Amino acid sequence: MVSPQSDEDLVLKTLGGEEEAFSLLYDRYRQRIHSTVYRIIQDAAEAQDATQEVFIKLYRSLCDWNPQKAKFSTWLYRMAANHAIDCWRSRRRRRESQPAEVGDREAFPEQPISDAILTPFGALEKKESIEQIRRCVDDLPELQKKVFLLRYFQDMKLEEIAEMEDCSLGTVKTSLFRATHSVRRAVRRGGGSR
Amino acid sequence: MKRPVSRHYTEEELLMHYLHEESPEIGVEISNHMLECDECTAVFMEYGDLVETIQAWAVPPLPQEVWQSQKAVLAAQYRADLAAGGRKGIISSLQKSLLTAWNYALENPLPTLAYIAVAVAFALERTISTFRLDRILPGASEVYEILRQVL
Q1: Domain boundaries, chain B
Q2: Which secondary-structure segment (H or E) carries B68?
Protein backbone atom coordinates (compact mmCIF):
# COMPACT_ATOMS: atom_id res chain seq x y z
CA MET A 1 0.00 0.00 0.00
CA VAL A 2 1.32 3.45 -0.89
CA SER A 3 1.27 5.86 2.04
CA PRO A 4 -0.09 9.33 1.28
CA GLN A 5 2.55 11.95 0.81
CA SER A 6 2.85 14.62 3.48
CA ASP A 7 2.06 18.26 2.71
CA GLU A 8 5.75 19.05 3.21
CA ASP A 9 6.78 16.52 0.55
CA LEU A 10 4.23 17.85 -1.90
CA VAL A 11 5.32 21.42 -1.28
CA LEU A 12 8.96 20.55 -1.91
CA LYS A 13 8.07 18.70 -5.10
CA THR A 14 5.85 21.55 -6.29
CA LEU A 15 8.72 23.96 -5.70
CA GLY A 16 10.92 21.61 -7.67
CA GLY A 17 8.57 21.89 -10.65
CA GLU A 18 6.53 18.67 -10.26
CA GLU A 19 3.10 19.46 -11.60
CA GLU A 20 1.68 16.22 -10.22
CA ALA A 21 2.56 17.27 -6.66
CA PHE A 22 0.73 20.56 -7.14
CA SER A 23 -2.30 18.68 -8.48
CA LEU A 24 -2.30 16.50 -5.36
CA LEU A 25 -2.22 19.55 -3.12
CA TYR A 26 -5.12 20.98 -5.09
CA ASP A 27 -7.16 17.77 -4.74
CA ARG A 28 -6.41 17.61 -1.03
CA TYR A 29 -7.46 21.15 -0.19
CA ARG A 30 -9.81 22.40 -2.94
CA GLN A 31 -13.03 21.48 -1.11
CA ARG A 32 -12.01 23.01 2.20
CA ILE A 33 -10.67 26.16 0.58
CA HIS A 34 -13.80 26.56 -1.49
CA SER A 35 -16.01 26.13 1.60
CA THR A 36 -14.14 28.82 3.52
CA VAL A 37 -14.10 31.18 0.58
CA TYR A 38 -17.78 30.56 -0.20
CA ARG A 39 -18.94 31.27 3.34
CA ILE A 40 -17.07 34.57 3.34
CA ILE A 41 -17.99 35.80 -0.13
CA GLN A 42 -21.45 34.16 -0.27
CA ASP A 43 -21.57 34.16 -4.04
CA ALA A 44 -21.19 30.93 -6.00
CA ALA A 45 -19.43 32.28 -9.09
CA GLU A 46 -17.10 34.61 -7.21
CA ALA A 47 -16.23 31.90 -4.71
CA GLN A 48 -15.26 29.63 -7.60
CA ASP A 49 -12.96 32.28 -9.09
CA ALA A 50 -11.52 33.15 -5.70
CA THR A 51 -10.71 29.49 -5.02
CA GLN A 52 -8.75 29.34 -8.26
CA GLU A 53 -6.92 32.57 -7.39
CA VAL A 54 -6.01 31.18 -3.96
CA PHE A 55 -4.28 28.21 -5.60
CA ILE A 56 -2.37 30.44 -7.99
CA LYS A 57 -1.28 32.57 -5.03
CA LEU A 58 -0.40 29.37 -3.22
CA TYR A 59 2.22 28.06 -5.62
CA ARG A 60 3.58 31.53 -6.31
CA SER A 61 4.29 32.09 -2.64
CA LEU A 62 5.14 28.54 -1.59
CA CYS A 63 8.76 29.50 -0.92
CA ASP A 64 7.52 31.95 1.74
CA TRP A 65 5.97 29.15 3.80
CA ASN A 66 7.99 28.45 6.92
CA PRO A 67 7.15 25.01 8.37
CA GLN A 68 8.64 26.06 11.71
CA LYS A 69 6.16 28.90 12.00
CA ALA A 70 2.90 27.30 10.89
CA LYS A 71 1.40 24.07 9.61
CA PHE A 72 0.87 24.09 5.87
CA SER A 73 -2.92 23.88 6.25
CA THR A 74 -2.96 26.80 8.72
CA TRP A 75 -0.87 28.91 6.38
CA LEU A 76 -3.12 28.00 3.44
CA TYR A 77 -6.39 28.70 5.30
CA ARG A 78 -5.04 32.06 6.33
CA MET A 79 -4.19 32.90 2.76
CA ALA A 80 -7.63 31.74 1.61
CA ALA A 81 -9.50 33.66 4.31
CA ASN A 82 -7.55 36.85 3.63
CA HIS A 83 -8.07 36.58 -0.11
CA ALA A 84 -11.77 35.88 0.35
CA ILE A 85 -12.13 38.89 2.64
CA ASP A 86 -10.48 41.08 -0.01
CA CYS A 87 -12.96 39.76 -2.59
CA TRP A 88 -15.85 40.23 -0.16
CA ARG A 89 -14.78 43.85 0.45
CA SER A 90 -14.70 44.69 -3.25
CA ARG A 91 -17.99 42.87 -3.78
CA ARG A 92 -19.58 44.87 -0.97
CA ARG A 93 -18.20 48.14 -2.39
CA ARG A 94 -19.65 47.23 -5.80
CA ARG A 95 -23.01 46.38 -4.25
CA GLU A 96 -23.09 49.66 -2.33
CA SER A 97 -22.29 51.71 -5.41
CA GLN A 98 -25.00 50.02 -7.50
CA PRO A 99 -28.74 50.23 -7.00
CA ALA A 100 -30.29 46.97 -5.77
CA GLU A 101 -31.30 44.66 -8.58
CA VAL A 102 -34.06 42.13 -8.68
CA GLY A 103 -31.56 39.42 -9.62
CA ASP A 104 -29.50 39.97 -6.46
CA ARG A 105 -31.00 36.97 -4.71
CA GLU A 106 -29.36 34.72 -7.31
CA ALA A 107 -26.12 35.41 -5.49
CA PHE A 108 -27.41 33.27 -2.62
CA PRO A 109 -28.54 29.98 -4.01
CA GLU A 110 -30.52 27.54 -1.94
CA GLN A 111 -28.41 26.53 1.08
CA PRO A 112 -28.27 22.79 1.53
CA ILE A 113 -28.68 21.52 5.09
CA SER A 114 -26.74 18.59 6.47
CA ASP A 115 -28.78 15.40 6.28
CA ALA A 116 -28.20 14.68 9.96
CA ILE A 117 -30.57 17.43 11.05
CA LEU A 118 -33.22 17.02 8.37
CA THR A 119 -36.41 15.93 10.09
CA PRO A 120 -39.91 16.58 8.74
CA PHE A 121 -40.72 19.06 11.50
CA GLY A 122 -37.35 20.70 12.01
CA ALA A 123 -36.22 21.20 8.43
CA LEU A 124 -37.99 24.48 7.76
CA GLU A 125 -36.99 25.94 11.10
CA LYS A 126 -33.36 24.94 10.51
CA LYS A 127 -33.44 26.44 7.04
CA GLU A 128 -34.64 29.74 8.45
CA SER A 129 -31.98 29.66 11.17
CA ILE A 130 -29.26 29.02 8.61
CA GLU A 131 -30.51 31.93 6.54
CA GLN A 132 -30.26 34.14 9.64
CA ILE A 133 -26.77 32.81 10.33
CA ARG A 134 -25.67 33.47 6.75
CA ARG A 135 -26.88 37.06 6.86
CA CYS A 136 -25.35 37.65 10.26
CA VAL A 137 -21.95 36.26 9.23
CA ASP A 138 -21.96 38.59 6.22
CA ASP A 139 -22.19 41.56 8.60
CA LEU A 140 -19.58 40.42 11.13
CA PRO A 141 -16.34 42.40 11.52
CA GLU A 142 -13.47 40.80 9.60
CA LEU A 143 -11.59 39.20 12.50
CA GLN A 144 -14.78 37.81 14.03
CA LYS A 145 -15.82 36.41 10.67
CA LYS A 146 -12.45 34.73 10.15
CA VAL A 147 -12.30 33.23 13.65
CA PHE A 148 -15.93 32.07 13.43
CA LEU A 149 -15.48 30.30 10.09
CA LEU A 150 -12.11 28.76 10.82
CA ARG A 151 -13.20 27.45 14.24
CA TYR A 152 -16.60 26.09 13.27
CA PHE A 153 -15.91 24.87 9.76
CA GLN A 154 -12.20 24.06 9.56
CA ASP A 155 -11.96 22.71 13.10
CA MET A 156 -8.93 24.84 13.82
CA LYS A 157 -8.10 25.29 17.49
CA LEU A 158 -8.30 28.85 18.80
CA GLU A 159 -4.62 28.72 19.73
CA GLU A 160 -3.73 27.97 16.10
CA ILE A 161 -5.93 30.84 14.89
CA ALA A 162 -4.30 33.21 17.40
CA GLU A 163 -0.88 32.22 16.11
CA MET A 164 -2.02 32.57 12.54
CA GLU A 165 -3.51 36.01 13.11
CA ASP A 166 -0.61 37.09 15.29
CA CYS A 167 -2.86 38.10 18.17
CA SER A 168 -3.51 36.90 21.70
CA LEU A 169 -5.60 33.86 22.56
CA GLY A 170 -7.84 36.14 24.62
CA THR A 171 -8.59 38.31 21.58
CA VAL A 172 -9.49 35.27 19.52
CA LYS A 173 -11.72 33.85 22.26
CA THR A 174 -13.52 37.16 22.62
CA SER A 175 -13.92 37.45 18.84
CA LEU A 176 -15.42 33.98 18.62
CA PHE A 177 -17.74 34.62 21.53
CA ARG A 178 -18.93 37.97 20.10
CA ALA A 179 -19.52 36.43 16.69
CA THR A 180 -21.42 33.48 18.17
CA HIS A 181 -23.40 35.80 20.41
CA SER A 182 -24.38 37.97 17.41
CA VAL A 183 -25.48 34.86 15.55
CA ARG A 184 -27.47 33.71 18.57
CA ARG A 185 -29.28 37.06 18.69
CA ALA A 186 -29.95 36.93 14.96
CA VAL A 187 -31.36 33.40 15.18
CA ARG A 188 -33.54 34.37 18.12
CA ARG A 189 -34.83 37.46 16.30
CA GLY A 190 -35.63 35.30 13.33
CA GLY A 191 -37.57 32.94 15.56
CA GLY A 192 -35.27 30.06 14.77
CA SER A 193 -34.25 29.21 18.34
CA ARG A 194 -35.67 26.20 20.06
CA MET B 1 -33.25 18.68 42.83
CA LYS B 2 -30.06 20.61 42.09
CA ARG B 3 -28.67 23.09 44.66
CA PRO B 4 -28.56 26.80 43.80
CA VAL B 5 -25.00 28.11 43.49
CA SER B 6 -23.63 31.58 44.08
CA ARG B 7 -21.10 32.01 41.20
CA HIS B 8 -22.29 31.39 37.65
CA TYR B 9 -19.97 31.03 34.71
CA THR B 10 -20.10 33.60 31.91
CA GLU B 11 -21.59 32.73 28.53
CA GLU B 12 -18.12 33.02 27.02
CA GLU B 13 -16.71 30.51 29.51
CA LEU B 14 -19.58 28.13 28.83
CA LEU B 15 -19.15 28.40 25.07
CA MET B 16 -15.40 27.73 25.42
CA HIS B 17 -16.25 24.75 27.60
CA TYR B 18 -18.59 23.38 24.93
CA LEU B 19 -15.82 23.76 22.35
CA HIS B 20 -13.16 22.31 24.71
CA GLU B 21 -11.17 25.49 24.35
CA GLU B 22 -10.48 26.11 28.05
CA SER B 23 -7.67 24.74 30.19
CA PRO B 24 -8.36 21.18 31.50
CA GLU B 25 -8.55 22.37 35.14
CA ILE B 26 -11.22 24.95 34.34
CA GLY B 27 -13.01 22.34 32.26
CA VAL B 28 -13.30 20.06 35.29
CA GLU B 29 -14.48 22.98 37.45
CA ILE B 30 -17.20 23.92 34.97
CA SER B 31 -18.34 20.31 34.58
CA ASN B 32 -18.62 19.96 38.36
CA HIS B 33 -20.42 23.27 38.60
CA MET B 34 -22.95 22.27 35.99
CA LEU B 35 -23.87 19.17 37.96
CA GLU B 36 -25.34 21.56 40.53
CA CYS B 37 -26.42 24.55 38.44
CA ASP B 38 -29.47 24.40 36.18
CA GLU B 39 -28.95 27.94 34.91
CA CYS B 40 -25.43 27.37 33.57
CA THR B 41 -26.46 23.98 32.19
CA ALA B 42 -29.30 25.64 30.25
CA VAL B 43 -26.97 28.25 28.73
CA PHE B 44 -24.42 25.54 27.91
CA MET B 45 -27.11 23.46 26.17
CA GLU B 46 -28.37 26.46 24.24
CA TYR B 47 -24.89 27.22 22.92
CA GLY B 48 -24.48 23.55 22.07
CA ASP B 49 -27.67 23.62 19.97
CA LEU B 50 -26.56 26.85 18.34
CA VAL B 51 -23.14 25.48 17.36
CA GLU B 52 -24.86 22.42 15.92
CA THR B 53 -27.14 24.67 13.85
CA ILE B 54 -24.21 26.80 12.70
CA GLN B 55 -22.30 23.72 11.56
CA ALA B 56 -25.31 22.59 9.55
CA TRP B 57 -24.66 25.50 7.17
CA ALA B 58 -23.36 23.50 4.23
CA VAL B 59 -21.86 24.80 1.01
CA PRO B 60 -23.47 23.78 -2.30
CA PRO B 61 -21.10 21.22 -3.82
CA LEU B 62 -19.39 22.10 -7.08
CA PRO B 63 -19.90 19.63 -9.94
CA GLN B 64 -16.93 17.42 -10.75
CA GLU B 65 -16.54 19.07 -14.19
CA VAL B 66 -15.94 22.43 -12.52
CA TRP B 67 -13.14 21.00 -10.39
CA GLN B 68 -11.64 19.31 -13.44
CA SER B 69 -11.67 22.43 -15.57
CA GLN B 70 -10.27 24.50 -12.70
CA LYS B 71 -7.51 21.94 -12.24
CA ALA B 72 -6.64 22.13 -15.94
CA VAL B 73 -6.49 25.94 -15.85
CA LEU B 74 -4.27 25.86 -12.77
CA ALA B 75 -1.94 23.27 -14.30
CA ALA B 76 -1.55 25.38 -17.45
CA GLN B 77 -0.85 28.48 -15.36
CA TYR B 78 1.65 26.53 -13.25
CA ARG B 79 3.52 25.38 -16.38
CA ALA B 80 3.56 28.91 -17.81
CA ASP B 81 4.89 30.35 -14.58
CA LEU B 82 7.49 27.63 -14.38
CA ALA B 83 8.70 28.45 -17.90
CA ALA B 84 9.05 32.11 -17.01
CA GLY B 85 10.51 31.15 -13.63
CA GLY B 86 14.23 31.33 -14.49
CA ARG B 87 14.21 35.04 -15.19
CA LYS B 88 11.89 35.73 -12.30
CA GLY B 89 14.17 33.72 -10.04
CA ILE B 90 17.15 35.98 -10.71
CA ILE B 91 15.08 39.13 -10.19
CA SER B 92 13.52 37.84 -7.01
CA SER B 93 16.87 36.75 -5.55
CA LEU B 94 18.27 40.21 -6.39
CA GLN B 95 15.28 41.79 -4.66
CA LYS B 96 15.81 39.58 -1.63
CA SER B 97 19.52 40.51 -1.45
CA LEU B 98 18.71 44.21 -1.65
CA LEU B 99 16.09 43.83 1.04
CA THR B 100 18.56 41.99 3.29
CA ALA B 101 21.17 44.70 2.72
CA TRP B 102 18.64 47.43 3.45
CA ASN B 103 17.59 45.73 6.70
CA TYR B 104 21.22 45.35 7.71
CA ALA B 105 21.82 49.05 7.00
CA LEU B 106 18.86 50.06 9.16
CA GLU B 107 20.06 47.91 12.04
CA ASN B 108 23.77 48.81 11.74
CA PRO B 109 24.06 52.37 10.35
CA LEU B 110 27.72 53.03 11.36
CA PRO B 111 29.31 49.91 9.86
CA THR B 112 27.16 50.48 6.76
CA LEU B 113 28.51 54.03 6.37
CA ALA B 114 32.06 52.69 6.74
CA TYR B 115 31.43 50.10 4.01
CA ILE B 116 30.00 52.76 1.72
CA ALA B 117 33.01 55.03 2.34
CA VAL B 118 35.46 52.23 1.51
CA ALA B 119 33.48 51.38 -1.64
CA VAL B 120 33.44 55.05 -2.74
CA ALA B 121 37.18 55.44 -2.10
CA PHE B 122 37.90 52.28 -4.06
CA ALA B 123 35.70 53.37 -6.94
CA LEU B 124 37.27 56.83 -6.96
CA GLU B 125 40.78 55.44 -7.12
CA ARG B 126 39.79 53.05 -9.89
CA THR B 127 38.07 55.82 -11.84
CA ILE B 128 41.05 58.15 -11.62
CA SER B 129 43.60 55.50 -12.55
CA THR B 130 41.53 53.82 -15.28
CA PHE B 131 40.48 56.95 -17.12
CA ARG B 132 43.67 58.86 -16.30
CA LEU B 133 41.57 61.69 -14.91
CA ASP B 134 44.65 63.24 -13.33
CA ARG B 135 45.78 64.21 -16.85
CA ILE B 136 42.46 65.72 -17.87
CA LEU B 137 41.57 67.26 -14.55
CA PRO B 138 44.68 68.49 -12.84
CA GLY B 139 44.20 68.16 -9.11
CA ALA B 140 41.96 65.09 -9.25
CA SER B 141 44.69 63.02 -7.62
CA GLU B 142 45.09 65.60 -4.89
CA VAL B 143 41.35 65.54 -4.23
CA TYR B 144 41.46 61.77 -4.07
CA GLU B 145 44.49 61.87 -1.75
CA ILE B 146 42.69 64.23 0.61
CA LEU B 147 39.59 62.03 0.55
CA ARG B 148 41.65 58.94 1.18
CA GLN B 149 43.29 60.51 4.21
CA VAL B 150 39.94 61.70 5.55
CA LEU B 151 38.38 58.26 5.08
Answers
A1: 11-55, 82-150
A2: helix B64-83
